[in-house]
Design goal:
Elements lengths: L3 H4 L3 H17 L7 H13 L4 H9 L12 H16 L6 H13 L4 H16 L4 H9 L1
Helix pairs in contact: 2-3, 2-4, 2-5, 5-6, 5-7, 5-8
């Protein structure tokens, strides 16, 4: 159902919750959320200003938080990088995670070739220790 406060939430807040929901689904696609994924989820929740209650609600009721495609190229790339960061957080990338990356990439308005190119470049740069901001700058050049 939701609360009265949720009726008056901004689109940005709804989008943030939808993104966080996708990240949670990516983290647990292999059946568990490991320590590195949990640390990253906690960091992202703080960055998105989500309360612990909101995080629990999203985890408990993922169907209430759809992903909303971002409009600008920068927003699409930034959100896609969040997905890549979550997938590489545990050091192992499996087929289920890649299927979700493809699905959510398409839902963000990216085509198959762009998804593969961005994923490869971003995952390599994360492995090199680059930050999300540094990677975004390179991808937008």
């Amino acid at each position: 159902m939701g609360t009265i406060a949720e009726l008056f939430e901004s689109e940005e807040r709804k989008n943030d919750k939808g993104l966080f929901n996708v990240l949670v689904m990516l983290a647990r696609v292999d059946g568990k959320i490991d320590d590195n994924e949990l640390k990253l989820l906690t960091k992202i929740a703080r960055r998105l200003s989500l309360t612990s209650e909101q995080v629990e609600e999203i985890i408990s009721h993922p169907d209430r938080y759809p992903i909303t495609p971002p409009i600008s190229k920068e927003e699409r790339y930034e959100r896609f990088l969040s997905l890549v960061e979550m997938v590489v957080a545990d050091g192992a990338i499996d087929d289920k995670e890649m299927k979700l990356i493809d699905k959510y990439g398409v839902s963000m308005g990216l085509d198959d070739e762009e998804i593969k190119k961005l994923f490869e470049k971003a995952s390599n740069m994360f492995a090199e220790g680059k930050t999300k901001g540094e990677i975004l700058d390179v991808l937008l050049d």
